[in-house]
Amino acid sequence: MRFNRLRLNGFKSFVDPTELVIHEGLTGVVGPNGCGKSNLLEALRWVMGENRPTAMRGGGMEDVIFAGAATRSARHFAEVALVMDNSDRLAPSGFNDADQLEIVRRITKDAGSAYKANGKDVRARDIQMLFADASTGAQSPALVRQGQISELINAKPKARRRILEEAAGISGLYQRRHEAELR
Ligand code: ATP
Ligand code: MG
């Protein structure tokens, strides 16, 4: 499934609706310090189900909502949409009803996050599993954060194993086994 578009609205510094079109091949995002390059990658991670505020460089998940600036007041929600190509119909069942798959995550102050897939309400876990199985998940090693290379080098063996499991595409299985053991 190819990523086609990323849309942001009220997410971190992207207070106005912004659309990033992802063409085939290599995409580079260039800009001065603090212009929002890392925020874009975090938006991608977030719409794929990231639930650790620290991965968003925040203290709480609501910190992803535009917090206001000198000339703009704060927003009360943030929304990110990821549009993927599904013309080969390889999306798992439940997500495979159209040639495009659009995942939307929205967080509202004091009301938490809600997800939609092609307009239908879905659970956070469904989204996390979708991307974990596709090995492109929010914590996937394919998304390399600033400073992550040195973290990998310094990681304890258990943490490094998790990263390798993600790379091998079996973290979805790992999660399901964990849930089965809890039952
Ligand atoms: P660098 O080149 O230094 O890595 P960058 O382009 O990656 O910079 P980001 O870290 O993506 O920049 O953006 C940081 C900016 O986003 C800061 O100006 C910060 O104030 C702003 N920002 C982060 N969270 C919010 C928020 N909730 N509301 C408003 N602005 C925010
Ligand atoms: Mg950055």
UniProtKB/TrEMBL annotation:
It comes from the Bacteria. It is found in: Cytoplasm. ATP binds at P32, N33, G34, C35, G36, K37, S38, N39. Contains large globular domains required for ATP hydrolysis at each terminus and a third globular domain forming a flexible hinge near the middle of the molecule. These domains are separated by coiled-coil structures. Belongs to the SMC family. Homodimer. Required for chromosome condensation and partitioning. This is Chromosome partition protein Smc.
